[in-house]
């Protein structure tokens, strides 16, 4: 894959030279000939739009991957045509049940919380296959998920959490494939990341683009509701700064926000963006501006979060600290259920305890310490969050 930058958070250089070590054949296959993760489910029409914009700029190590994505997009188009004719009318008549929406910046514990709520069989959730193939999952998941899962990496590259098509995942991948209106497209074409940055918040974005995203989000949720006939538990970090839009779509939704020590979030987010680049890119990534990107994105996300949080109706919002959830998970989950007036927690408590026991051997990443200069910069840029949740600087 070539030489890139490995984070060490030093006093002057935040990175030093390193290499990605993709030794497993699954990793080599996925990053060499598999489509970039945010574009797994794109149709040929969408892929052709991207190629018209950036096809000439795809770097040589990724050209085979681009050819493979063309092939998969043609299959997605054919399956999407079939699925629309089979299910579109049924889905359109399906009323949406008010969802539970998890908010929080990347690497703040949203996945851990999502996994625990997903254990409750009175709810449903979008799984990995569904978010990667939103156009076709109703007609292809039963067959294709078993076939394609053979090629999945066994764990996520950034934290060694187990991967499967049945695991809960974030709906941002679905709306990305359905509309291309997502900052994740900028991860695929990093030299054009600035073009897609406004799609994190949708502030200042043309109304027709916002309307297209809202329609896609509603359609995806409606398809899942038709399939499961249960309220959904949704989780997508970008939605942390889209509360107003989400309330326009789902006025009776309940929201859970999870926060974590900002210093740890910075390190883990930097590490996440670095380690997942091989799974996302069609252009060579540039990490020179990665520190500024993490600082800027977090700040923008929470400026809007604090502005829009008050729009959530009373009794429909609960906030939780990752540290408290980690220290007293059962007590914190029980409190969450009571705060949002969810069904009796006792129904799912044994499953939560069993899940927590299964994590006994899990080891977190050991990341380098932040140098004093960088800590000072983070504390200044994200001061409101340190003060809001009482984290020391």
Description:
This protein is 52% helix and 7% strand. The chain is α/β, with parallel strands linked by helices and 393 residues long. It has one domain (12-389): 3-Layer(aba) Sandwich (Rossmann fold). A 4-stranded parallel sheet has the order 4-3-5-6. It has a two-stranded antiparallel sheet with strand order 1-2. Helix 2 (44-54) runs antiparallel to helix 3 (63-92).
* Largest sheet features: 4 strands, parallel
CATH structural class: Alpha Beta
Provide the CATH superfamily.
P-loop containing nucleotide triphosphate hydrolases
CA-based shape: globular
Main structural class: alpha/beta
The number of distinct β-strands equals 6
N to C succession of SSEs:
EEHHHEHHHHHHHEHEHHEHHHHH
What is the rounded Rg? 20 Å
Query: What is the averaged pLDDT score?
Result: 89
Major beta sheet, strand line-up: 4-3-5-6
The overall number of domains is 1
Report the sheet-strand fraction.
5-15%
In percent, how helical is the residue content? 40-55%
Helix segment count? 18
């Amino acid at each position: 894959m070539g030489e890139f930058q490995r984070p060490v958070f030093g006093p002057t250089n935040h990175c030093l030279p390193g290499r990605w070590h993709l030794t497993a054949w699954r990793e080599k296959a996925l990053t060499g000939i598999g489509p970039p993760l945010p574009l797994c489910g794109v149709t040929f029409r969408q892929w052709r739009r991207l190629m018209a914009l950036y096809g000439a700029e795809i770097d040589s190590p990724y050209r085979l991957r681009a050819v493979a994505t063309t092939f998969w997009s043609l299959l997605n188009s054919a399956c999407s045509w079939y699925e629309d004719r089979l299910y579109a009318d049924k889905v359109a008549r399906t009323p949406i049940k008010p969802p539970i929406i998890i908010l929080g910046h990347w690497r703040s514990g949203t996945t851990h919380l999502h996994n625990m709520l997903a254990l409750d069989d009175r709810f449903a959730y979008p799984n990995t296959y569904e978010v990667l193939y939103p156009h076709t999952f109703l007609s292809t998941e039963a067959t294709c998920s078993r076939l394609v899962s053979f090629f999945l990496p066994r764990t996520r590259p950034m934290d060694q959490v187990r991967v499967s098509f049945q695991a809960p995942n974030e709906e941002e991948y679905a709306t990305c494939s359905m509309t291309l209106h997502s900052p994740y497209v900028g991860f695929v074409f990093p030299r054009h990341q600035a073009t897609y940055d406004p799609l994190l918040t949708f502030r200042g974005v043309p109304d027709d683009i916002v309307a297209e995203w809202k329609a896609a989000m509603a359609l995806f949720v409606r398809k899942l509701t038709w399939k499961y006939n249960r309220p959904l538990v949704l989780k997508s970090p970008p939605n942390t700064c889209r509360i107003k839009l989400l309330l326009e779509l789902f006025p009776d939704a309940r929201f859970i926000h999870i926060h974590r020590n900002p210093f740890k979030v910075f390190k883990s987010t930097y590490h996440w963006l670095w380690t997942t680049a091989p799974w996302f890119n069609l252009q060579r990534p540039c990490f020179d501006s990665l520190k500024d990107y993490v600082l800027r994105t977090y700040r923008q996300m929470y400026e809007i979060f604090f502005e829009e949080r008050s729009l959530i109706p009373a009794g429909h919002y609960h906030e939780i600290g990752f540290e408290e959830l980690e220290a007293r998970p059962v007590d914190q989950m029980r409190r969450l259920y009571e705060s949002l007036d969810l069904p009796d927690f006792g129904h799912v408590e044994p499953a939560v305890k069993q899940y927590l026991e299964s994590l006994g051997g899990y080891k977190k990443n050991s990341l380098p310490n932040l140098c004093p200069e960088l800590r000072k910069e983070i504390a200044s840029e994200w001061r409101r969050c340190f003060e809001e949740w009482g984290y020391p600087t």
